Amino acid sequence: MKIPALILKQLYTFGSLENIPGGVRFAIKNRLSDATLLRLRGVRINGEDVAIERITFHLGEGREVRASEVNPDSPVAFPLRQVVHIKAENAKLDNGTHEITISFEAKPFGYLSFTVKDTIAEVKHNRVTVPQDNANNYPPGVVT
Question: In the chain, N or C: fewer CB atoms in 10 Å?
Fold first, then answer.
């Protein structure tokens, strides 16, 4: 089954790429239809292959599966709206844009592959502050 690349890219959750202890993580979400993941063919980050043995699928509710354990005899259900966090045990990525290629086999779609670009941004802390008027901050009515 041929699925256009523009539609396949919608599987990727943009903005999900982040550095975590021991590697990087990003997410995909099934936005097509119920499927079964039969095999991960490969993940490339910035043109470099990540060994299948160094990839883990986090399926929610504490369920984790090593990508090397997924095969047609031991598939993983990937129903519609399912989010899978993919952890790649590799070096930390610098801030900026990175290219990710994911190749896999899924039933009923067959072999699928797509490439996306996502960004790791510098962490910005949103501070909640109390509004104040520096010119008129001391009258008794300020504190209620």
Answer: C
**Which three-class secondary structure state does DSSP give residue 2?**
coil
Q: Which two tokens stand for residue 130?
A: 């109390």
Q: Cα 87 vs. chain centroid, distance in angstroms?
A: 8
> Would you say 25 and 87 are in contact if contact means Cβ atoms under 8 Å apart?
yes
Global pTM?
A: 0.80
pLDDT in tens, 71-82: 999 999 999 999
- How far is 128 from 144, CA to CA, in rounded Å? 19
Nearest Cα neighbor of 44 from 117, 120, 96 is 117
pLDDT exceeds 70 at position 134? no
Of 100, 116, 130, 122, nearest to 19 by C-alpha is 122
Report how far residue 87's alpha carbon sits from residue 27's, in angstroms, rounded to the nearest whole number: 9
Question: For residues 90 and 54, is the Cβ–Cβ distance under 8 A?
Answer: yes
